[in-house]
Input
Amino acid sequence: MNAIFDKLLLVFLMFFSLHSTVTFGMNNIKQPAATAIASTIQADEDNFEHHYVMVNGLRLHYVSVGKGEPVLLIPGWPQTWYTWRYVMTELAANGYMAIAVDPLGTGYSDKPESGYDTGAAATTLHEMMKQLGHTQYSIVGHDIGMWVGYALASDYPAEVKKIVLTEAVIPGLAPAPSLFVSPEENIFLWHFMFNQVRDLPEMLTAGKESEYLNFIFDNWAYRRDRVAAQTYIDAYASPGGLRAGFAYYRAIPQTIQQNKLRAQKKLTMPVLAIGADHATRDAPQLTLQGRANQLQGAMLGECGHFVTEECPEQLMSYLLPFLKQ
Output
């Protein structure tokens, strides 16, 4: 009897484990419910569709809405695809297909040990878009997404129609900042050095992800109440979340060497660089001067670093006309 009972119990457990999954989007790749980050699934009322796609053996999560010309949206650190929710709704309403990705190491996407230099990150997204059947598309990249977007546009210019880059300077294009700067400047710079250090950031932030990331959101945002900070804290507090985020910074030396080569040829597609008056100001445009044949610049007023959430209306007032030109 015990042997029969044990077999029945095993069958029951196998059945339960197979059915205790959640499925996102059309690719029908299942993720165990226990590892889902519930607070990132908040946009069903906007008909957002969650998908997974496998690229070189790694799983990428992306969210799409709308029909029309594709626009790839690349978030920065420490955020996920969710930062694009307002932009996605407006793009879809204006006849575009918005595709917001969790880059490798972010959100629901896999978190490998390597592949965080912008050349590798750009190639991964290029392969993703090719798998989705998009041979030409526009890009909007924010923060580290600006780094990756620049690499993608430079390395695959035939595929990128237009590119919008917000709120960052690009390693290898912008001059290295001085070691001794004012506290007002340093609040946007200190993490570059801290995040690159091996092992120490993980030791100091383990179990204190909320304190660490809230410090970032508190000091980089001008309209703090508009930023979905807890959503991102949940994502980066998941296993390997902060380690993968730090990996983009630890790959900066490799990214700089790549960008020195990229800088030898200008971007050929139209480029719009956007800063915020309470964050990088005109630095995004300055870092791209001489790097693009068709460069426009804009600065958003009364806005902090997280432009997609703090001032989406202003952002769209520049983004939509640029895409429609």
Remarks:
- The first strand starts at residue 21 and ends at 23.
- The CA atoms of residues 279 and 305 lie 5 Å apart.
- The domain at 20-324 is CATH 3.40.50.1820 (Rossmann fold).
- The chain has a mean pLDDT of 89.
